[in-house]
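Issue: ligand-bound run for 2-phosphoglycolic acid - logging full I/O for the record.

Environment: standard queue, default settings, no custom constraints.

Inputs:
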Amino acid sequence: MKKIYFGTNLKMYKTIRMTLEYLHYLEELTRDIGREGMELFVIPSYTSLERAVENTDRRLVRLGAQNMNWEDEGQFTGDISPVMLKELGLDLVMIGHSERRHVFRETDAEENQKVKAALRHGFTALLCIGETAKDKAYGVSAEVLRTQIKIGFSGVGREEIHRLRVAYEPVWSIGVHGIPATAEYAEKMHREIKKVLGELFGRDGLEIPVLYGGSVNLGNACQLIVQESIDGLYVGRAAWEASAFDRLIRESMEAYGNQTTE
Ligand code: PGA
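Outputs:
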């Protein structure tokens, strides 16, 4: 059975209390879903991480951070280092979310330093990529994704690819004003992404899970997950109620053909 991936980034929304409540419900609701057929991860705010780690069964829900500096320590006021996240015992680190790239002006070269730092410290690195509406209008989406992947994963060895994940999130599809990509468009871009991963890492590169994100909801999740090159869904708003996320996961798994109970 091929494993499918479901994740959510809580962005800058939930407080510690809200995060713990959310994780508790999500864990309870999804407890009966066999994890050999799916992986579930949640990325809370920094302030919630320590309590989240203490209170979550990580066999059921993996936990990650939304960002990280690449240096172990230094003069980087306001940033968090991999050593600090390691101390918490997190599973994964998200790198290069669209809001980091576009609001905070992070570059591909910086994302690459973060990917390498994450791997050096034993985290799974979730690299987010995606073209803007302008890139799409100019017809350079595939080229932009290729650049983001090639620079983002530059210097990463084949032996590390089991700790890589990619989230493809077209910038124009994210958030309240986002327009979700059609399943056909998403599949086409996922194929391009897999092609680049294959060029970089050989056949094993095709094993790197590539998740689709950007306005995923109950209405489009099933069409997306059944696409051949989509290995999972990275969900924002539609996942922030535990019961809604549980339903989205179950419906997607059913559409995909994976059993939801052991
Ligand atoms: P959204 O967010 O599902 O609310 O569009 C997706 C994301 O930013 O990862």
